[in-house]
Design brief:
alpha+beta; 2 domains; 4-stranded mixed beta sheet; 4 strands; 35% helix; C2H2-type domain-containing protein; Znf_C2H2_type
Length: 220
C-alpha cells in the first residue's frame, strides 16, 4: 500500500514516522480500497457523493518501522488518523455548498429568455447544474459560459464539443438585456464631471439600509 514519509534532516532515523495510506469510506463499513479512484467510484455509486479527482499520487516505500495507518483523501494528498476526520475534511474542502442566491436567480429566469441550442440543450439550465458541482465560486453560478472550462464542460457532460462550438460561433448574436433596477443603478454613475462622479460614489444608496448579500449581490 502507498506510504508517505516525513523525514526532517535533524530528526534521528529511529524517530521518523511513516504513514501507510489506505482508502476507506467514512460513511459505511466497506472494505478498504486499493486506490483513490476506486474510493471515489464507491462514493458515487453507493453513497451518492461525487468527489473531484486528483493529480496527486502516492507510492509504496517499504519499511518495517514506525508505521502508522492513515486514511487518504480520494481528492487530494491529505490523510487522517480516522475516517471521521477524513469525512470532516471531505465536507469542508471537497463538497459543494448550497448557494440559495443562485437557486433564486435560476428560478427567476423565464424559459422564453433562455438560450436553446440546435440540439435542444438549454445553456442556462446546463450552467446551473454545472455550477452546483463547484466547490468554490464559479462563473457558471452567474450563468456565464467560460471558454477556459470547455474541457470540464465536456468531461462532466454539461456540453458536447459541438455545442461548445455552436456557443462560440453564435454568442455575439445574442442580445443581452440588463434588469431595469440594475440599469438605473449604473446610470447614477453616468455623470458629466468628476466632482459629480465622486459625489455619486459616496452617496448612500437605499440598498445600504437593508443590505443582504444573497439579495443584492448583483448590485454589489
Amino acid at each position: 500500500m502507498p506510504i508517505v514519509t516525513y523525514s526532517p534532516y535533524n530528526i534521528p532515523v529511529s524517530d521518523i514516522e511513516y504513514y501507510t495510506i489506505v482508502y476507506a469510506c467514512h460513511l459505511c463499513d466497506a472494505s478498504e480500497f486499493s486506490n483513490a479512484r476506486n474510493l471515489r467510484d464507491h462514493y458515487e455509486t453507493f453513497e451518492g457523493k461525487k468527489y473531484p479527482s486528483t493529480k496527486s499520487r502516492t507510492y509504496n516505500t517499504p519499511t518495517q518501522q514506525n508505521v502508522v495507518k492513515n486514511y487518504g483523501c480520494p481528492s487530494c494528498s491529505d490523510h487522517y488518523d480516522t475516517t471521521n476526520e477524513l469525512g470532516n475534511h471531505l465536507d469542508e474542502k471537497h463538497t459543494p455548498k448550497a448557494r440559495p442566491e443562485v437557486d433564486t436567480s435560476f428560478k427567476s429566469l423565464k424559459n422564453e429568455n433562455k438560450w436553446t441550442l440546435s440540439t435542444g440543450t438549454v445553456v442556462e439550465d446546463q450552467l446551473y447544474e454545472f455550477g452546483k458541482l463547484q466547490i468554490r465560486e464559479h462563473p457558471s453560478q452567474s450563468f456565464i459560459f467560460d471558454v477556459n472550462d470547455s474541457e470540464l464542460y465536456i468531461k462532466h457532460g454539461t456540453f458536447t464539443s459541438g455545442e461548445i462550438e455552436e456557443i462560440m460561433i453564435n454568442y455575439s448574436n445574442i442580445s443581452l438585456q440588463l434588469p431595469d433596477d440594475f440599469k438605473q443603478y449604473l446610470n447614477k454613475f453616468n455623470c458629466k464631471s468628476n466632482s459629480r462622479h465622486k459625489k455619486s460614489i459616496v452617496t448612500k444608496r437605499k440598498l445600504e439600509d437593508s443590505y443582504h448579500q444573497d439579495k443584492h449581490f448583483d448590485l454589489d
